[in-house]
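Quick check before the chapter quiz. The format below is the same one you will see on the exam, so make sure you can read both the input and the output lines.
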Amino acid sequence: MQKKSFDIIVVGSGLAGLTAAYHASKKGSVALITKSQLDTSNSYYAQGGIAGAVSEDDTPELHAHDTLVAGRGLCERDAVDILVREGKERILEMIDMGMQFDKKDGELVLGLEGGHNKRRILHAGGDATGKELTCFMLEKVKEQKSIQTFEYTAVTQLIVVNEVCLGVQAIDFVSGQNLIFEAPSCILATGGLSRIFSRTTNPHTATGDGISLAFDAGAKVEDMEFIQFHPSALCIENQDAFLISEAVRGEGAWLLNKNGERFMKDIHPLAELAPRDVVAFSIYQQMKKDKSPNVFLSLAHLDPDKIHKRFSNISSKLQSFGYDMATDMLPIAPAAHYMVGGIKTGLNGETNIKGLFACGEVASTGVMGANRLASNSLLECLVFGKRASEQAAMLSKSNLEIPTLDVYTNKAEFEDFYLQIKNEVADLMSENVGIVRNQYDLDKALTRFEEIRLKIASCERDYNILKARQIVEICELITKSALLRKESRGGHIREEFNQENPDFRVHIVFQKESKTEYIPIKK
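Here is the expected output.
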């Protein structure tokens, strides 16, 4: 097995991974590993923008307030303070580096999104902020001679000895070769997991493998029950969900029921701009009331020229489905979108395993609480990607030796087996562990996941077998956590417990072969 040595390993090439790799490159040699292409990530597809208190009438304190309100009592205040204060610095730093955010008459154009009480959403390319930011950072990464990139290379395990991470084992899809990457520090920035649901806005790569890799290595994971469902994803039979940015509602779009009536005005003072968990649940209830698979999004009362210009990419995509964004009633329904919890980290991305760090959507930093505030995700990537890289660069090589490792194959004969498992699991998650949950459905799903896991149990060291086992493990963690949280809070709603329990402001923490922990938020 070929061994490659670096100072820092970064796994994942979304905005968090690119940011971490870029800053780490100032301190030493970096291996940037991604299982697909460098530009395939949730970050790349983010439409809305990046939140930052950059205007004269805004402050980090106001941004923190909105983040804490959206987080439903589970945010960690110190992490939020870091996000909003350093976030502003990181955005201004990006602008100094040459990042072009949209401007009008020389001034930054700031949008409004759900849960924000100020216009503080910077965007680029209209509705292509994630793409523009990711491509910008990708170019910066490519300029760094100390970064070596490895595309189409999937990590099969973290190499951990005596609770110290020594590197990763990976498989090169092109050559089929197994590789060992050795480094004092490894930063996981593998993104989300919402592709484990049948209806999702995520790319095919977002299956939670980073969380599974960390959990299997002994890392703690927390808040796994909190999945954010994006309220407005196009709903067309036999088509993947297409995200219609929250920024569309920020510009004044209305949510209508089957009779063409607005229904959010009577539910929340911010109406269509209520926090995401409120809007998604309200849409779910309206669909149930109407006995309809969708509600409608309407922009017919707005200036059509402005809409087509502001949301040119969304407008073009909707046109390909036969819809005029500015005039038609757009059928929408919530879709799994963002993993709020993840690998438990400290304020510098550090985990309970020495040398292992996490940042971006794969991490649970304490910033998001029970529900992410819109457009805080790209900001979190910039802030904690840099923090993780700086902390990781301080570690030196240990005296521990990498043990002999088994080789993984990638046999085509197991691909259908994996897809069969993945499709069944995705249906189970959407039907039983979706927006609204109850004990009967959760128990039913968990029983089936356990059956599938036993079916997968195999001595075969193959990448497709590993993937199948990983997605089932992730689904079990989410379902177990949802069963344990006997309340409704943020992105987790239980039919039998439809209120928040003020005495249950705790993080549910899992660690392999350890008792479940309930950790109260810091006072």
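If your answer matched, good. The first strand starts at residue 2 and ends at 5.
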